[in-house]
Specification:
By secondary structure, the protein is α+β, with helices and mostly antiparallel strands. It has three helices and four strands. A four-stranded mixed β-sheet has the order 1-2-4-3, sandwiched between helices.
């Protein structure tokens, strides 16, 4: 992902609320499936990382990106933003992006 694309996605993600929350059980298969579904339908997803982890938020975000085949857009505090384009979505020029719906 290029820097300009990442900057555009960061500005779009600013207004989003976290869709997926990582709880006390950490990275479970159910959580990864939930994130995968959210990425398939929205493409741009914010993830709220749990407070109980001793691991660094960037490491958790990279693990999530690797598990879901997505890109880390940004990590601020304990919130990560991930992006994965869905080629199966019908997108037309001028339509609003799926994460704004």
């Amino acid at each position: 992902m290029k820097g300009k694309e990442r900057a555009e996605l960061r500005s779009e993600a600013h207004h989003l609320t976290p869709t997926v929350h990582i709880g006390q059980h950490g990275l479970t298969p159910a959580l990864i499936n939930s994130l995968d579904d959210a990425l398939r339908t929205r493409e741009l997803v914010k993830v709220k990382l749990g407070n109980k982890d001793d691991t660094k938020p960037k490491d958790v975000a990279n693990a999530l990106a690797l598990a879901t085949n997505s890109d880390v857009v940004q990590v601020i505090g304990r919130t990560a933003t991930l992006f994965r384009e869905n080629p199966e979505m019908d997108k037309k020029r001028g339509d609003i992006p799926p994460w704004r719906k």
